[in-house]
Amino acid sequence: MAKQTKNMVLRLDPALAERLRLIAEVEGRSVSDVARQAIADLVERRRKDRRFLRLLDDNLTRHAEALRLLRDEPIEPIEPIGQSGAGAEGESAEGQARRGEIA
User: Whole-angstrom Cα distance, residue 39 to residue 71?
Assistant: First the structure.
């Protein structure tokens, strides 16, 4: 079975696009393959980046509050995921589990 992919349009500065093309040529790979690997590497780094994960928690909290407003539910303070207790550096078990730090 063929691996499914999603087509995307990527706009690059011409100089960056040329550097990407040269890297692909030197490595004997397609430009798409080199770009795909660079994006996959970035995503993995972000998944382990505590600063990014805190931003994610902040966004989740903000969106949960907006959803409550749209549903006309009573507004109650929401404790950010990373601040609810027992985990390392004040991180919740839920946050640690999301990152695979605990089962």
Answer: 36
Q: How far apart are CA 24 and CA 18, in angstroms?
A: 10
Summarised one tens digit per residue, pLDDT across range 56-86 is 988 888 888 888 888 876 666 666 655 554 4
Q: Which amino acid is at 18?
A: E
Q: pLDDT band at 40, cuts 50/70/90?
A: very high
Q: How far apart are CA 2 and CA 13, in angstroms?
A: 32
CB 66 within 8 A of CB 72: no
In the three-class reduction of DSSP (H, G, I as helix; E, B as strand; rest coil), residue 75 is classed as: coil
The domain segmentation of the chain, as residue ranges, is: 14-47, 50-98
Residues sharing a CB contact under 8 Å with residue 53, sequence separation 6 or more, in sequence order: 47, 82, 95, 98, 99
